[in-house]
Amino acid sequence: MPIPPAVAKFADLHPKPAHVRFQYGTAGFRTVASVLDSVLFRVGVLAALRSKKLDGKTIGVMVTASHNPEQDNGVKLVDPRGEMLDTSWEGHATVLSNAQTTDDFINELDKFVQAAKIDLSKPARVVYGRDTRPSGASLVAALEDGFKALGAEARDAGVTTTPILHYLVRAINTKGTKDSYGDDSEEGYFLKLSAAYKKLVATRQTPSPLIIDCANGVGAPIAARLVEHLGDSMPLILENTSITTPGALNNACGADYVKTSQKLPPSLDGRLQPGQRGCSLDGDADRLMYFYLDERSQFHMLDGDKIAALVAAFVVELVKTAGLQSQVKVGVVQTAYANGASTKYLSERLPVRCVPTGVKHLHHAAEHYNIGVYFEANGHGTVLFSPATQETLRDYQPSTPAQSTALEHLRSLNQLINQTVGDALSDMLLVEVVLAHKAYSGLEWDSLYVDLPNRLVKVVVADRNQFKTEDAERQLISPPGLQQKINELVRRYDGGRSFVRPSGTEDVVRVYAEASSRAQADELAFRVGGLVYDFCGGNPTTRPKEFI
Ligand SMILES: CC(=O)N[C@H]1[C@@H](OP(=O)(O)O)O[C@H](CO)[C@@H](O)[C@@H]1O
Ligand SMILES: [Mg+2]
């Protein structure tokens, strides 16, 4: 079947800007919003094709640039089980987005449809949402033209969070089956989470109020609705909720600000009291960072690694108490950015795997455990219960009241946790459940282990693509000879660790370093940064001053 003429007609309305090259990367397409119109249209077409290829299963499309500045935007596709787009299609997305003229685009499309054996007569179904960015509405209009061009049945989920969009995709595709993921509506999502949360804390004291920094993004209206559903069971105070103030999104607030600057958002100064818990969401509410001030008002961050440690230990304990330890093996997945102290803490208790950066790698590795806990240090993560484990939890006959209670808790956790993708609000409730059960304050949680001081540095190089890594990105194999020099530097530092990899989302190379003291971690990072810069022939006049 030839490409319907409507595709070319609509494509003419969305010309590709000259001299821009797009790439479907770790987080889909992401760049300044002003150049994205053609990309959105073409992604609309691609989503419809993906649905046709999968017999009309619903595909999700999320328009967001997450923690990036407000003027950026982006788009990513969600596969039928609520997971990220299959990697084998990422390259096709890139090729289609870069076809210059309408004719080029139709040619590429035709080639792709033939090669992938897509039956264009099949139905196509999509569901799409966007964050609060001002550029969202017009980009969604371009996306909708892509759907129309192929006659896809399209459902608008409106302004919503990335994890809700993932939830909806899974809920729509499992509707009416024995694997039903929940009602396929935002309301269904809130009911599922709040009911599970209330069950889990039913016998616990109401916690002290938690402050949520909503990053002035879509997390604000969504958290406000969660508040209504939680009622008295969880006192939440929402901050940074100005979604219509120009420039406010992610500006000096949000999970990425907290992680990279290791500081309290200035807007929370005087609001967060010593001893009180606070947390930050990012711009699309799929990342979560916790923090608290000690009695001297010193800021302490509880990042994705701390969340993983807290949650994994709790799940292991429940599995044991339920008497399921021989059938249900719990494991953790991290990346090289995980703090060495967290890896040590976790490895002493359960299996830990290290995989390359990017949620899809963590997610897939976590699927290999019966219960897989994965978190990136930046606060993106979730817990996956394998299908077999869900059956075990359903059928298991406990033999004591203690076993029965632990089993009920595991069943509720399986409901509480958004298993399609990291979800800041679901993860926040999960953390609150564990804190309530352990009667931990932020301080006690923080004391599970002490973070090794660490430093992340960006290095601008002529061509980051010459950087190739192995061993889950912990070793460089190219440029040749550089890894040896890094090793020589690292050896000089007590508890030193450092690795270098090309970023998948920015045109930079990242250097990570940790050591037993702050000064040493900084020094090691700046030495490795300088080494990388010079090794790549960086211009001495623009060499960053802090590099040693
Ligand atoms: C050090 C770091 O935080 N890297 C981030 C960042 O990837 P880079 O490939 O390092 O640019 O963005 C990714 C997508 O959001 C996220 O998965 C990852 O953790
Ligand atoms: Mg995000």
From TrEMBL:
Start and end of every Alpha-D-phosphohexomutase alpha/beta/alpha domain?
58-88, 118-176
GO molecular-function term, one example from the UniProt record: phosphoacetylglucosamine mutase activity
Give the residues annotated as active site: 66
The protein's UniProt keywords, in alphabetical order, are: Carbohydrate metabolism, Isomerase, Magnesium, Metal-binding, Phosphoprotein
Tell me the cofactor note. Answer: Binds 1 Mg(2+) ion per subunit.
Reactions it catalyzes: N-acetyl-alpha-D-glucosamine 1-phosphate = N-acetyl-D-glucosamine 6-phosphate
Residue span, Phosphoacetylglucosamine mutase AMG1 domain: 189-288, 303-440
Q: Write the signal peptide boundaries.
A: none
List the Pfam families hit by this protein, alphabetically.
AMG1_II (PF21405), AMG1_III (PF21404), PGM_PMM_I (PF02878), PGM_PMM_IV (PF00408)
Which residues does the UniProt record annotate as the domain Alpha-D-phosphohexomutase C-terminal?
457-525
Q: What is its EC number?
A: 5.4.2.3
List residues traversing the bilayer.
Answer: none
Q: Which cofactor does it need?
A: Mg(2+)
Q: Name one GO biological process term.
A: UDP-N-acetylglucosamine biosynthetic process
Q: Which residues take part in binding Mg(2+)?
A: 66, 282, 284, 286
Per the record, the pathway is: Nucleotide-sugar biosynthesis; UDP-N-acetyl-alpha-D-glucosamine biosynthesis; N-acetyl-alpha-D-glucosamine 1-phosphate from alpha-D-glucosamine 6-phosphate (route I): step 2/2
Task: List the InterPro entries.
Answer: A-D-PHexomutase_a/b/a-I (IPR005844), A-D-PHexomutase_a/b/a-I/II/III (IPR016055), A-D-PHexomutase_C (IPR005843), A-D-PHexomutase_C_sf (IPR036900), A-D-PHexomutase_CS (IPR016066), AMG1_II (IPR049023), AMG1_III (IPR049022), PAGM (IPR016657)
Residues that hold substrate according to the record: 376-378, 501-505, 510
Per the record, the similarity remark reads: Belongs to the phosphohexose mutase family.
Task: Report the function annotation for this chain.
Answer: Catalyzes the conversion of GlcNAc-6-P into GlcNAc-1-P during the synthesis of uridine diphosphate/UDP-GlcNAc, which is a biosynthetic precursor of chitin and also supplies the amino sugars for N-linked oligosaccharides of glycoproteins.
Name of the protein in question: Phosphoacetylglucosamine mutase
Q: What is the lineage of its organism?
A: Eukaryota, Fungi, Dikarya, Basidiomycota, Agaricomycotina
